[in-house]
Amino acid sequence: MSWFSKVRNAIPFIAKRETEDNLWHKCKNCQEMVFLKEFEENQSICPMCDHHGRIGATVRFVQMLDEGSWEVLEAPEVQSDPLKFKDSKKYADRMKTAMADNDYPDALTNASGTIQDHPVVMGVQEFGFMGGSMGLAVGAAFVNGVNHAIDKKCPYIIFTAAGGARMQEGILSLMQMPKATVAINQMRAAGLPYIVVLTDPTTGGVTASYAMLGDIQIAEPGALIGFAGQRVIQDTIREKLPEGFQRAEYLLDHGMIDMVVHRKDLRDKLASVIDYTMSGIKAA
Length: 284
Hints:
The protein has helices at residues 3-10, 20-23, 36-41, 57-64, 91-101, 136-152, 170-174, 176-189, 204-207, 230-237, 248-253, 263-277; strands at 24-26, 33-35, 71-72, 108-115, 118-125, 156-162, 194-202, 216-219, 259-260. The chain is an alpha/beta fold.
């Protein structure tokens, strides 16, 4: 053994240092590098340009619901691969990867809790789970959340984030659109508010169904909200679309949503909306 090998082997193990990848966050809007800890402590909002970053279901529950008040509702069981779909990869394998990379078994998760002591059931779509795509599991979770809200006589709040219907489930994914609409009608028949918070991005079949059927429509600043992509629309109508088309502020100016609310103000705003819409209704 050479002297160099002896010296090298005698050096004690030193833990791997934190690297640039886990110390910094690069803003997708202004491209500035921000300390990851600072970014997360700022509710995943860029301190330079105020861009609202995408966040997952667990973080959203922690930010919106009263501490210690909430518990995640059990996800309904559905057929996991109804069409035995395969493209460049088996759908079953894609699902295994998505479940390994996320906290919950599919793209929509519900929790029951309170917002400033107001009972709510809250659903959050996880864009990190196959683009938040809507399939059988999302449809079943949505209906389960609505039914739980009706039982508790409280609002159902949904935070949307999706690329649309899940292509690997074909027509079955599209069937979730009318299924969700029926559930929303049941909420209205019960006299309970259905509140939608549109986050970046909310597109496709989700926009064409439950994302745009709220009694109150709220959006986070700068959120992309639309059905078809901007390039598809431009190629279809052969016209250049206006600046900011399909962004939350544009939709507010044109009457498609009720308000755009900064993430730091969202919890207080939801509490005010619940207080107003639930006036005279006693939760179970």
